[in-house]
Specification:
heterodimer, A: 268 residues, alpha/beta, Rossmann fold, 6-stranded mixed sheet, 4-stranded antiparallel sheet, 10 helices, 10 strands, B: 404 residues, abc type-2 transporter like fold, 2 domains, 4-stranded mixed sheet, 6 strands, elongated
Chain lengths: 268, 404
Amino acid sequence: MENVIEVSNLTKKFKEFTAVDNISFKVKKGEIFGFLGPNGAGKSTTIRMLTTLIRPTSGQAFVAGHNITTQAGDVREHIGLVAEKIILYDRLTALENLKFFGKLYHIPKSTAQERAEKWLTTLEMDKWQDKMVGTFSTGMKQRVNIARALLTEPEVMFLDEPTLGLDPQTSRSIRDFIKDLHAHGVTVILTTHIMPEADELSDTIAIIDHGRIIAVDTPANLKKANQKPNASLEDVFLALTGRDMREETHGDVSSVSDHIFGAKSRVR
Amino acid sequence: MKNNFFTTLKDSLRIASKDLVDFSRDRMQLIFFIIMPVFMMIMTGFIYPSENSLKNIPMGIANQDQGQISQTLVQVFSDMKISNDEKVFTIKIYPDNEAIKKAIKDQKINGGIFIPADFSQNVLNNTTAEISIIPDQSNPQISSILTQMIQQVVNSMSTGVAETKIGEIIKLTGKVNPQMANLDPATIIQPIQSKIDNLIPGKTNYFQFIAPGIMALIVMMSVMTGLAVSVSREKESGTMDGLLIAPISRLSIILGKAFAQTARGMVQGMIVLLLAILIFGVHVYGNWLVMILLLFLGVFAFMGIGILVSAVATAQETAMSIMMTLQFPMMFLSGTFFPIQQMPHVMQYISKAIPLTYEATALRKVIVLGAGLSSVWTEVLILSIFGLVMIAIAVPTFRRVITR
């Protein structure tokens, strides 16, 4: 089967801190690729590199057949991103937001309108389409946010914790929606901390810790390899990554000692 | 990338129009967008006393003289008016100068004059007549203006008396020496006169001086702060990722932001000008086109700094504090509020290194003195070069920093 993403020896350093350490993996076309790891393990940094938002320190990666560093523009044409932060303008209406992003992707006006209405209807946001996004709840925002990412009908969808902070109803509908995308042949890269969610959705799971990929396999195989009978994905995850808690601040925010000793502030 | 120049431009206009719609819906920002220049104008205009802003100053008069001349003098003071029919002084009568001094101490009056009992008699007797001016020394600004005005009145009265007296002398000597008969008493009292040849008609007020400076200042602030805040806000909220992930060039993002801020800056500059004209009686003597060109150039000159700061600052707060640090010295050293010539030498040199100085100077030349493009070309050149250099530094930096 054809690979949509090929990552080889990708590394990202922020000053001395290595956020992503020489990782390599492949994502097959049309699969849901679960990307798991504790906080600060390097998931978001990897996704930001693959979506061309930051440049790798070394190594290379191809997304939809294009090199992320040398052909960033081409990569952007083929991907959609739902990141931790919602990419919508609070003072534009849902529909205005979608139309604006449609314009940035040079989608013809009528097509953009059509698609926007289609996705908003599918995600049950059509009756709010003319309301300002700023007045929405997190769940409503996330649904519009997903509609925005889908507007370009991307080959590869990056979903970085799409169900974070949402109620069970919205989470459920978003999970169903991810399955729906999968059925339509879209490749999905999914990060989440909810193990049953990853288990339910993913065809392949990669577990990353301290910037390194420590396991890649199907959920079933990962569970089988665990000593415990009837192990859940959570058991697998904890066995692989240990039970120590992590600092969420790795790499992104300067540490406490930086504040105390006045280290040079880092440009994020 | 297959982006050519026109797609870049089109994309940037899309971002600009999104920014402006977003801005126009932010009611708080919109209010301050208008209130800020109004505040600036009113504050700077009114905290400095000018002749026009001084009216109904409470002044005490203690007239112990019964003669006609002192009566006239008091009348002149109480009738003195400034241009728009308001009286300069509110006269309060006191019995003697001790009472006046007490009233000043009580801050009931801002100064006073004392006319002694022998005043009229001394004038008639051809001896020196004196009046005393009692200033309020706790308020040097007002008291110096007040003293000046009283001295002017007394001087002109004194001149009038002198003219009458010399007229009589001429009449007497003319009988003996006919050559003297045709002399004008005024030319004897003041044989040398100075005349003011204004570039523009009428008197300039402080607003006329300050309005061009404030225009320059507001344009600078709205471009620099506006740009940095708008970019860092998108970074903070995550929407910048949405722009960066779109298949558009980095240049169009920064251009779009810059266009939106240009529009804002120009509109705000125009608000200042309209306020200045409608409320503060400022008159534009120069060519409007030249003035608008200068405003535009001001926007251009500060764009680079704005882009640079927005590239470096990740959070709005950081952007704001960098801007404050940059703008504060510029505000006071650019000759916006105080003439540069009044500054110490070292400060004058620093002032010359600040681009805002040139923007303010050029605008002032055009608005107050009616200068044309030929008189401001040095400023135009300096601003253009500064703008170009800053943009040449800022745009590549932005492109590099935004995707590390």
